[in-house]
Amino acid sequence: MTDREHYEAVVVGAGPGGAAAAARLADHGVETLVLERGADAGAKNVSGGLIYAEQSAPYTVDDLFPDFREEASERPITDYKMDNIAGNRVKTYDLTPLHENDTLWCDAVLRRKMDSWMAERVHEKCRESGGGLLTDVRVNGLLRENGEIVGVTCDELDDIEADVVIAADGVNSELAREAGLMDWDDPEEWFQGVKAVVDVPDGFVQETFGVDEDEGVARLFSGDLFQDARGGGFMYTNQDTLSIGTVFHLDSIVEERAETHELLDALLTHPHLSNWLPEEYDEVEYSAKLVPDSKKVALKEPHRDRLLLVGDAAGQMQAQGPIIKGMNHAVTAGALAADAYVTARGRSGETAGQRYATLLDREGVMDKLRPKSYDWTSGISEHPAMANVMETVAKSPVGRAVLRTGAAESLVERAFNSPRLLSMLPDIKPAYVTVPTLIGEEQGVPVSGESTVETPTLEERIGDLSYNTDIGNPHIEVVDNSWAASGTAVTACPVSAEDFGGGCYRSETVGTNGSEERVVSLDTQPCVECGTCAVVADTEWEHPRGGKGVEYEQG
User: Fold this and answer.
1) What is the per-residue pLDDT across 478-517, written as a single tens digit (0 to 9) for each?
2) Which runs of consecutive H residues, i.e. helices, occur in 193-283?
3) 405/401 Cα distance (integer angstroms)
4) Which of 13, 108, 345, 367 could hold 169 in an S-S bridge, CB 3.0 to 4.6 Å?
5) Which helix (H) or strand (E) holds 473?
6) Directed axis angle between helix 352-362 and helix 327-344, to 10°?
7) Gene3D superfamilies in the record, alphabetically (predicted)?
8) Do 85 and 438 form a contact (C-beta atoms < 8 A)?
C-alpha cells in the first residue's frame, strides 16, 4: 500500500457548513484538516445574504462561534417587507411575522468577512487536535481503494486519506458529482442569483431606513419588472453597504432568453428603489452563483462510503417564495455530520453517513428542505393545465375585482406570512409573476420617486473584480459549440450577453463549406465561477486550481 498522509477527518470547503463541521469535530477532539480552494476563506463565496438562527435547530452559528454576531455579521434584520410591483405602482406587505417565525435572530452578512473570521477560529480549534486549515488547495477528486471512497485527491497536495470526508465545497461540488450524488442535468432544479454590493455614506442606512445602528431592513421585490422570469429581487442593509440582487428559476431564464445582468439593472433603476439608493450610485462588487432548489434536489441520503455532503453540496438551500434560508441549514448539517461521525466511529452497524441522514430527518431539517406538502401538491399545482387555469382566473375581471377588496388584502398578507402555505407554493408563472403584478395593479399606489441610477456596464463590472488568471489552464471546455447545444450560455451567463464580446461566452457566425453556422466561443478569464453554463450548455466544467480565478472582496 502506498504511504499517504492520513487525517481522521478532512473537511473540504471553509464556508459556513465546512466551518461548522470542522469546529464541531475539533470540539470532539477529532484530528481535522480543512482544505479551502480560495486564497482566503470567503474569497470564492457569495450569498444574498441573511443568516438565521432558528429556535428549532439543534445548532446555530453562535452556538459554535459565540462571538459571531459581534465580529462577523453586519446588521440584525428587524424589518422584513415584500413589494409587489406593476409598472409604477407598488403594493407592500409586511412579512415580519414570517421572518420572525421560528427565529431567534437573523443578521445580514457579507461572505468574505464572515467566512474569513470563522476560518481563523476553525484553524485555531483544529490545531489543538493536530489538524488545521490550508487555503489555495483545490480538492479535485475522491481517493478510492477497491472501489470505496477513502480520501481525497488535490491539485496542490499528494493524496490524503481520511476516516471521514465532509464535502462542503458548494453548489458546484465536484465531489458530490464524482460520487454520483448530484448532477447538472436539469435547469428546473436550480436558481441563479446575481448581486450588487452598493456603497453608502456613514449613517446612510440609519437615516434612510429609519433604523438604529443595531437594526436592519430586508425587502423583497416581485412583479412585472423582470421580463416574466420566475423569481424576484432583494435588498438587505449591511453596516455601510446595501446588498441588492435577483434570484430566478434557472429554467425560466433559459425560456425567456433573459440576460441576468439586465434583470438586476431593471431592479436597480426602478423608481421605487430611488427611495433607498444614494444620489451617487457606487457599485463596489458584482457577483453571481447557482442556488439549489432544495424542494427538488436536497439529498435524503447525502453520503456515500466515507463521504458526507453538507450545505449547497447536498442541495440544502430552502427557497420557498419569500422564505430564503441556506447558510443556517449548512451550519446545522455540518455540525450534525460531525456528530454523526463521532457517534458512529469504532462501532459496527450504522455508518457515519447513515447516522447523518437519520439526524437530518430526526432534527426536522429535511422537513424544511423537502416539505411533504410540496410533494403532495406539486404534481397538480405545477401541471401546465392547472397553471393556465390559474393564469386565466387571476387575470379575469372577477379575479381582479376580488383583489381590490379589503378582505383580499388581508388574506394575501396572511398567506405570505404562512410557512405552511409557502411550502406548497408552485414553481409557476402565476405564483411568481402574474399574481404579484396584479396585486401591484389593483392594490398598489403610484411611486413618487424617479431613478437617477446609472449602473455600470458589464465590462466595467468585470473590470472591477479581482482575478488571478490561471493562464494556460482553462477550467471550462465547450464540448459542443453549436448554437443549439450551447447558445443559451451567451444569455444566461452573468458576465456574458448577446451584444457584448468581452464576457465568457460569445456568439459568432462562421462559414463552413459555403454555408454559415452560428456557434459559441469561450474565454474563461472573466468567469465568476457560478456554474450556470454547466447546466445550460454542453461543457466540461471544473473549479479553477487553488487560489486561481475570481476573488471576491465582499461576497
Assistant:
1) 999 999 999 999 999 999 999 998 999 999 888 777 788 8
2) 204-209, 250-256, 260-268
3) 7
4) 13
5) none
6) 130
7) D-Amino Acid Oxidase, subunit A, domain 2, FAD/NAD(P)-binding domain
8) no
> How far apart, in whole angstroms, are the C-alpha atoms of residue 330 and residue 311?
4
Residue-wise pLDDT tens digits, 128-182: 999 999 999 999 999 999 999 999 999 999 999 999 999 999 999 999 999 999 9
Q: Which residue has the cell 480549534?
A: 125
160 membership: H or E segment, kind and range: strand 160-167
Pick the CATH number of 5-74+109-182+299-369 from 3.50.50.60, 3.30.9.100, 3.40.50.150, 3.90.1230.10: 3.50.50.60
Helix (H, G, I), strand (E, B) or coil at 245: strand
Q: Single out the residue of 328, 242, 321, 248 nearest to residue 278, CA to CA.
A: 242
Question: How does pLDDT run across 374-407, given as a tens digit for each residue?
Answer: 999 999 999 999 999 989 998 999 989 989 988 8
Does residue 454 have a pLDDT over 70?
A: yes
CA separation, residue 218 to residues 79, 236, 316, 407 (Å): 6, 5, 22, 26
The DSSP 8-state label assigned to residue 431 in this structure reads I
Alpha-carbon Rg for the chain in angstroms:
23
Distances from the Cα of 98 to the Cα of 220, 320, 323, 464, angstroms: 13, 12, 8, 37
Report the mean per-residue pLDDT for the chain: 95
Cell of 83: 413589494
Q: What one-letter code names the amino acid at 424?
A: M
2 pLDDT more than 80:
no
- Residue entry with cell 453562535: 62
Could you write out the three-class secondary structure of 182-209? Answer: CCCCCHHHEEEEEEEEEECCCCHHHHHH
Query: What is the C-alpha to C-alpha distance for residues 301 and 99, in angstroms, rounded to an integer?
Result: 29
Q: What is the pLDDT of residue 63?
A: 97
Q: What is each CA distance from 53 to 101, 203, 331, 535, in whole angstroms? A: 11, 27, 10, 32
- Placement of cell 416539505 in the chain: 371
Which grid cell sits at 112?
468574505
Cα torsion angle, 512, 513, 516, 518, sign: negative
Task: Measure the CA angle with vertex 260, ends 85 and 284; round to 5°.
Answer: 90
How many alpha carbons lie under 13 Å from residue 301 in its C-beta half-sphere? 8
pLDDT tens-digit profile of 250-268? 999 999 999 999 999 999 9
Q: Where are the domains of the chain?
A: 5-74+109-182+299-369, 75-107+183-292+389-461, 465-551
Are the beta carbons of 12 and 168 closer than 8 angstroms? yes
- Domain 75-107+183-292+389-461: which CATH number of 2.60.120.650, 3.30.9.10, 1.10.10.10, 3.40.710.10: 3.30.9.10
pLDDT of residue 111: 98
